[in-house]
Amino acid sequence: MAALPRLVCASSVVLVVWAGVCSAVCVEVPSETEAVQGTHMKLLCISCMKREEVTASTVVEWFYRPEGGKDEPIYEYRKTNHEFPSRFSGRLQWNGSKDMQDVSITVLNVTLNDSGIYTCNITREFEFEIHRPLFTSSRLIHLTVVEEAGEDFTSVISEIMMYILLVFLTLWLLIEMVYCYRKVSKAEEAAQENATDYLAIPSENKENCAVPVEE
């Protein structure tokens, strides 16, 4: 048992070190493409910098294009946040990071009319001593807004497995309880039989059964 606390402490140290290492790593994860009506939807846009040690000026432009329509600007970050007048007025929130590698925005209270294609354009100007090169990248997000959240097949399987495990554990517990009850009952019956047999012996025999004491 004394080794358990040491194991827990060692695991905690490993997790802390791992979290510290992972916190400095940038991973370009794709955004979710389905939102439920009335919820908040984060449009994920990550553009990792391969030269973090170099100072860079970052400009972010967000566009929205409905089906069969044209791109229209909805949000911009150029040292300060700016929201363009659009159907999203008052419903856009900056959700990026301080190092400007995550330049995501969140659409508040999404509606069915918010379905469409969102474009995230990133322009970086690196500040070297001799020259200032530009780096541009773009992300497309095909968003579909639904009225209700559909059942995820993986979550359904997980729930079924959870219920099966719960039933199995319940049956195992009942079997263990019945087994222990029978074992205790048999022990009590054996003790009662021994007591009955002892009481049935005549008193003379009980005295003869006594162990003689040597002087």
Distance between the termini: 51 Å
Query: Helix share of residues?
Result: 25-40%
Q: Tell me the strand order in the biggest sheet.
A: 1-9-8-3-4-5
Overall outline:
elongated
Q: On the 0-100 scale, what is the average pLDDT? A: 80
Radius of gyration: 36 Å
Global structural class: alpha+beta
Structure description:
With 215 residues, the protein is of the alpha+beta class. The chain is built from 3 helices and 9 strands. It has a 6-stranded mixed beta sheet with strand order 1-9-8-3-4-5, with no helix packed on it. Strands 2-7-6 form a 3-stranded antiparallel beta sheet, with no helix packed on it. The chain is elongated and about 115 Å long. Residues 1-23 have low confidence and may be disordered.
How would you sum up this structure in a few lines?
By secondary structure, this protein is an alpha+beta fold.
Q: Which features does this protein show?
A:
215 residues; alpha+beta; six-stranded mixed beta sheet; three-stranded antiparallel beta sheet; disordered N terminus
Helices and strands, with pairings:
Layout: H1 3-22, E1 34-36, E2 41-43, E3 56-65, E4 72-78, E5 80-83, E6 92-94, E7 105-107, E8 116-126, E9 134-146, H2 153-200, H3 203-208
Parallel strand pairs: 1-9
Antiparallel strand pairs: 2-7, 3-4, 3-8, 4-5, 6-7, 8-9
